[in-house]
Amino acid sequence: PVQAEDSIFVPMLTYRTGPFAGSGTPIMDGMHDYFTMLNERDGGIGGVMLEIEECETAYNAQKGVECYESVKDRDPVVINPYSTGITLQLIPKAPVDEIPILSMGYGLSATAVGESFPWTFNAPSTYWSQMSGIIRYIEAQGDGIAGQKIGFIYLDVGYGREPIPLLDELASEMGFEVVKIPVGVKDMQNQSSHWLQVRRERPDWMIMWGWGAMNPTAIKEAAKINYPMDHFIGVWWSGGNVDVTPAGEGAVGYLSANFHGTGTDFPAIQDIITHVVEAGKSLADPDTVGDNFYNRGVANAVATAEAIRTAQQVTGVSVVTGVEMREGLENLNITAERLTEIGLEGFMNPMQITCEDHAGAHPIYIQQWDGENWNRVSDWIEPMSDRVRPMLEAAAEAYLADKPEWQTQTCN
Amino acid sequence: MNVAAKDIAKGQNILEIDGISLSFGGVKAIRDVSFDVKKGEIRAIIGPNGAGKTSMLNVINGFYHPQEGTINYKGAKRHDMRPYVAATQGIARTFQNVALFAGMSTLDNIMSGRMLKMKVSLPWHFIRFGPAEREELEHRERVEHIIDFLEIQAIRRTPVGRLPYGLQKRVELGRALAMEPELLLLDEPMAGMNLEEKEDMSRYILDVNDQFGTTIALIEHDMGVVMDLSDRVLVLDYGEKIADGTPDEIKNNQNVIDAYLGVAH
Amino acid sequence: MSGNGVDTTEDLILSVNNIEVIYNHVILVLRGVSLEVPKGKIVAILGANGAGKTTTLKAISNLLKAERGEVTKGTIEFEGTRVDTMSANQLVERGCIQVMEGRHCFEHLSVEENLQTGAFTRRDGRAAIAQDLEMVYDYFPRLRERKSSLAGYISGGEQQMTAIGRALMSRPKMILLDEPSMGLAPQLVEEIFEIVTKLNKQENVSFLLAEQNTNMALKYADYGYVLESGRVVLDGEAKALRNNEDIKEFYLGIAGGDKRSFKDTKHYKRRKRWLA
Amino acid sequence: MFYREAGQFKTNYRTDQAVFPIFQDKIGVLVILAFLFLVVPFWFNDFWLNSIMIPTLIFSLAAIGLNLLLGYAGQISLGTGGFMGVGAYSCYKLTTIFPDINILVHILLSGFFAAIVGILFGIPSLRIKGFYLAIATLASQFFLEWSFGRIGWLYNYNPSGAIEVSTKRMFGIAITGPHATSLTRYLIVLSIVVVLTWVASNLVRGRIGRAWMAVRDMDIAAELIGIRLLQAKLTAFAISSYFAGVAGALMVFMWLGAAEVESFDINHSFLILFMVVIGGTGSLIGSFMGAAFIWVLPIFLRAAPRVLGVDISAATVEHFNFMIVGGLIIFFLIVEPNGIARLWQIGKEKLRRWPFPY
Amino acid sequence: MSDTTLKSDGGSSMSQTQRNWLITVLILAAAVAGSFVAGSDSLLYKVFVGPFVEMYEVPDLFVQVLWEGLVAGTLYALVALGFVLIFKASGVFNFAQGIMVVFGGLSLVGFYAAGVPAFLSLALSVAMMYGLAWTVERVVLRPLVNQDPLILFMATIGLTYFLIGFGEFIFGGEPKTMITQEIGLPSGSYDFDWFGGFVSFQKLDIAAAVIAAIMVGCLAVFFNKTRIGRALRAVADDHQAALSVGITLRQIWVIVWFAAGIVALTTGIMWGARSDVSFALQVIALKALPVIILGGLTSIPGAIVGGLIIGVAEKTAEFYWGPLVGGSIESWIPYFIALGFLWFRPQGLFGEKIIDRI
Ligand SMILES: Nc1ncnc2c1ncn2[C@@H]1O[C@H](COP(=O)(O)OP(=O)(O)OP(=O)(O)O)[C@@H](O)[C@H]1O
Ligand SMILES: Nc1ncnc2c1ncn2[C@@H]1O[C@H](COP(=O)(O)OP(=O)(O)OP(=O)(O)O)[C@@H](O)[C@H]1O
Ligand SMILES: [Mg+2]
Ligand SMILES: [Mg+2]
Q1: CATH number at residue D228
Q2: CA dist., res. D56 & res. D70, Å (int)
């Protein structure tokens, strides 16, 4: 790694090993490659080089904390934990160590409430917003949602369980029925009984909150019981290319949520290919560049990089560290123009973070697998912020209830 | 206890075995055997291999439960029970295939024989100071006597798994003695010893019997030892009792000579 | 090793030269043991508990490694070739097998299967093996009765017979017997030694036996070694040893021509130590 | 030359039974304690305290717990992770139910809940032995894992399913939560571990320990000399689980600050088992050595390339890490199956004989 | 414990086992009666009656559940078989079986990806498993002969770590798709319209069952009818004694590890075809553990029968009872089922007797 006094230290908590490596690797590649591209092409951000360093967690919370401890004294600009488990452990540490945490589209939903969690960011959307978007999508299809039966199959860990409260609440309000089917980590690749339950319950729609090896297995099993794929929607972590390819033809029609574009048809991605991949500076298999999860990593890196840039602008400090970065994140505003500027026109919806709202109620879209590629099949869907926000606030309050010394902030 | 006292005590039976039968599946290990053991005597049990001697000891200390027959111990009829109950009633035992606690030192092995006599409850052991330590030291002293008695001071701290066979047998005797039993069952205590060691062992057995008045039932294949030490001898063959009497009677019993002793004796 | 009665021109089947054995890297057990077994002879090792008899035998049959012991010095030759680097299996194939102290039967195999494993290295066909099985059963009729019982359940003496029978099944040229008489009824002890002599005479099998029953051992052996604290302290023709005063006193229990009674032995008696 | 017991005569059994009969050992322990209490706090930075010292101590405690069960009582358990979880979750519940009671009391109490669960799942050991028992203990591991995720009451229905530690103070100093400095937490952990280790060493040297070892070495014989197997095994399970429970509570409250079910999964059980076996079954010092080895080695391995300036990716480092740790485990087992503690002992024995080789 | 090995005949009163059975039956009867009294909304009804009513009313699903259970059972049995082979032949509880499954699958896919034709890849993978067996014998087992089973168990965990690192280093951590068609495995399914619904049998699953049956048959013959087979069992009982009668431990270990490697490769192919080949797959080793204790650690038929029992019981339980408690009980239910069996037979259904003799 580049070692320089005047560089910005961007640690990456990765998992290229362990049971979730399948999902993790492309994300880490995308993130790593975008940062490297900035260094190669632009000489860093605002003239300051980025010092990128990976620390392998294997999705294990203890290793994650250890990684955090090992980097925290070296002025990391932000931590991307890439695991809800690790995020949960870092949330309390962030304000004390003054290192912001960006859990992009995962982590604890309640941290969207900026007043309560000044140091934690989960843009572009919380799981709850995302779930509400998916429900909206379902509602918008043919028969509406009232009276429908919705199956929710999820990885039986904190991450998978997180959307349940919202789902329950929406179910009673909107008049649909929910069937919950948890999949234990040990049974990720052994889901026959779960899908038999699907067969028994005959849900009209299936929603999946899966990760790692759970995804391809679920899609295969769904195909086995002839479940209509176009009524099967995955969270945006269940939409990797590695998730659908093993099922072959069976996966055609499968849907998943997303918030950014796929493919390589973006100038910035082309820059990655020329400056990084072809220059041999990437760890990625060239075939996977532009895959959904690869681009997820790029999106994450874009948000980080833009926040660094914003931080530089807002604070006037060029070698930013955590404290400035927090400012940058709270003032982050990636407009459509800015996206075009950085070569990612239409790659994602404009993204803004504010002091109150650390997630930003950003819309999602639904994509469909055609056997080769992901295709957009919906417009941008706005989440039900009116529903979600109060729940977030309640959750934040509950979180703080037994933590009298918690650092909060007031926004104006 | 002096010799006269021993003779008086001999009148009472400490153990009465009546009509015991024991079988495993098709194998009849013991068939309708009855005998008694008098207080303070040394009672030998002999017989060819597989005659049911060890099984008999197992019956006496509750490890095997006979299908038929009754056992009277210290005047009371005994029911089937877990073996540790026998230990609480004062029956101690050594084993044919040494059954020491291989990972523990000699000292600890013998100390473990005092387990039943130690009463201080668990919480005291957490801090050790006070009652637990006092009790420990008290028993340690008794154990040291046994160690002296058996002349195994030198191996006090050696894990017994590393000891040669003969010494292991001696430690095992020590462990049994530490239980201060009323009835001591010895299963081939002298197997694998040379003459000198057998002489020592005999001495210990006689001394235990003599000094503590412990009743002893022993199985042994060395006829010299059996004839010299025991007061009465029970002979088993194929699970049946074929003779019972003083060493001299046994020596000349034709059945015993045929089944067990062979011509030479 | 010469000048003590062994005819050096005679063929040696086994010779152990000055071996040293250490357990666990720190416990020195044998401090230079040398002994020889001429072809077709019976040699006995005598010695108190812990003298190192078992260790010597295990060193020869290469079983020490399994106990974290190793031969650090000296050589062992079987029929003129060095065997101390061989595996136990090669040694058995060459015809040298050990009967281990403390039985070591395969508990979960039946008696008959135990005996059959003894023939593992044999290549001379089922018929020959079956014949030898009969031979073992003839030696030990008790085993025939219990042949289908699991070896773990049979009595101590029966296990001992199984262990000996198992070794015989390999048709060895040489048998290392560790305390064969332990736990056997007197009649059987004699039978065992009869079997030993028979094999020795008829099939020219050589024996090295560690035995506590000195009386028996010296009666049947040709030659004897006395081991003490890992060293050979005395050796000689069995006959000569039998007449050695010290052996008489301490190993045979004959004081002034009469057998002592165990009842009369005194505590704290003087012990003979050659290495005082 | 310097390490001799010659000349140190014991005049009564009491001194003979002391924990460290050899004078030099006693000094050694004092030096180590002094180092841990007086030197470490001043010399070690946050990373060392947080990522090395605290976890190592906590894992040592858990390893001691398992060692009592496995090394002393001979019952293989693969459920340590679950028992640690019971400790952690009950401590969490205690703090929310009785927020005003000192957290240290909660931590020490939480072990009792683990002990109760340990006893329940120890019952099969009465009939089942060896690997059958080991696998049966997995029943407790998986059942507990499942319960931690399913019973909302345990984590106060927190939507994330995790338990989080709030700041608690003692004498005005934060001792848990993000505000507690690593130094405070280190000293607390150290004190608890030292005290409990002392308790463990008392136990194993006395009647209880002997009963356990007897059961371990030959349970039939143990029963025949009057040891109640039921009692001995269940106390072993209870006390072992108590240690594991306290370690679990410490792990969450003094180290991680938050935990979810996965923190107590089966891998965790294996980790502790490794520590015990590599350190040396049946040795308390071994538990410390094993914990240090298994926990610290990968950290060093991970840091090594950066320190040495070698440029390889984090993933590759992790691969090598696995290979090296796996390889070293095998290597250690081959060199000394009885663990590092035995190596240590042999070393000492050699020292005692020095300059003679044996 | 003695009463299990004893009391085989005689005894006028009811035995312990009979009494246990009677009590169990009575309790069940009471529960069923109670549920009818309490009505169909009561929990009792949902537990004791509801599921059976459903089985009767929706038979196609019930048949499908049974079939899925049998299929899963066959696959568990394959993993279990690997464990049993090695345990039976050497007394080693080989924890690395799970990673060997992954390794087998990965090497096949890996060779194919490198451009080797499918069947040649298969052959190379077999060769690779042989290489693994040889290396393991040379590096791990040989130096550890006659060690405590626990030590050997630990060594295999060390081996697991090593293989994880090594495998990920070579093949990369991301999942791969199994080359099902290329090596001639069928795909698709036979669907039947039965009982007013449909039942579907995957051809792949049928193939798995057939292959498993063939393998078990061969292994059973090998173990029971051959000289080597007997020697293998001897080794498991007593390494030293086995050495002493001239059994070639080395050769035997290579043979069984190779056999276990083949079983692992087969398992890897079959499981890989069902989902994909990834390192997450090694957790199925954990699924096989209850199977082997239920069937008995040393019994080949036990692995099969145990596998089928566990498979069917687990799927039925998850399907019919799981939803009552929030699902995902598959993670622990098999262990409790196995524990239930062990309570009656501590050595598993077909395991070798535990010899308690003194
Ligand atoms: N638990 C058991 N299961 C099956 N058979 C047994 C069991 N215990 C003993 N036997 C059988 O009962 C018979 C008597 O055995 P026992 O051990 O009592 O003989 P012994 O007289 O002590 O012989 P030895 O002198 O050889 O030790 C033997 O044939 C043995 O195989
Ligand atoms: N595995 C081992 N580890 C350490 N020391 C051992 C080991 N095996 C034997 N020893 C030691 O080696 C010495 C010799 O033991 P060995 O078993 O050879 O004696 P032996 O002459 O056969 O005695 P016995 O007549 O009692 O069988 C003993 O002091 C014993 O403590
Ligand atoms: Mg006997
Ligand atoms: Mg010996």
Answers
A1: 1.10.3470
A2: 20
